[in-house]
Amino acid sequence: MSVLIFDSGLGGLSIRREIQMLRPDLSVHQFADHAWLPYGAKSANDICSRLLAIIPAMVKRVNASLLVVACNTASTHTLPQLRAALSIPVVGVVPAIKPAARISKSREIIVLATERTIASPYLDELIQQYASDCTITRIGANRLVEMAESKLSGGAVDTTELRKLLPSASIPPSADTIVLACTHFPLLKEELEAYFSQQLDFVDSGNAIARRVSDLTPIQEKVEPAEFFTTGTLNQATIALLKSELFTRITTL
After folding, report:
1. Active site residue 134
2. Is the peptide bond prior to 38 cis by the omega test (within 30 degrees of 0)?
3. Which of 24, 65, 104, 111 is surrounded by the fewest CB atoms within 10 Å?
4. Pick the catalytic residue: 15, 26, 64, 71?
5. What is the pLDDT of residue 196?
């Protein structure tokens, strides 16, 4: 049994790491649509059409038994369509509003996401269902996706740019919880923790997704080699990173 993780870029690594910590017996392939990055700037219809065009073929190529859509933007717009198109379980990554509302004491929560996720009706539904008694501050920051990609490719995170993207005036001083509602953003957790002056609990969906994948997959006796696929081009630093993540083959489509 193999798992295929899909994301617009390298953000899916944050989910893959959580799955492998919980289930090292699983073979976890990854497919990154770098040619179309970032998804947060695309329309919902275009995202759906794109995924339906590229994912079924990749599922077949790696003979995946389960698909993880490790992209909040894609998940909030395409999960029903993907589940209808595929005969395997599809696990989506959605903003972790429920656990954030559970731990917030001040009842003020920040949701940091791409602009497309921030504007999605699905996020509205999650807030209404799980955090209707909370004050939610939504911050859309598509550029953070590219900053995370750059970091993993060997670049430095520009703290000056971070201040421009997340001006202190937009951060409620009484907020005590922040939802990282993009799988790229946990890759910047160290920089984000250093940036925010107030004490915040950082919440993402990684562990919950790993537990869901574990529930849906039996224990494997042998770990098969895992491959990484991308629709774009990768520099040598990124290739070295992916090799350190134990991908046995890296393929540009």
Report:
1. no
2. yes
3. 24
4. 71
5. 87
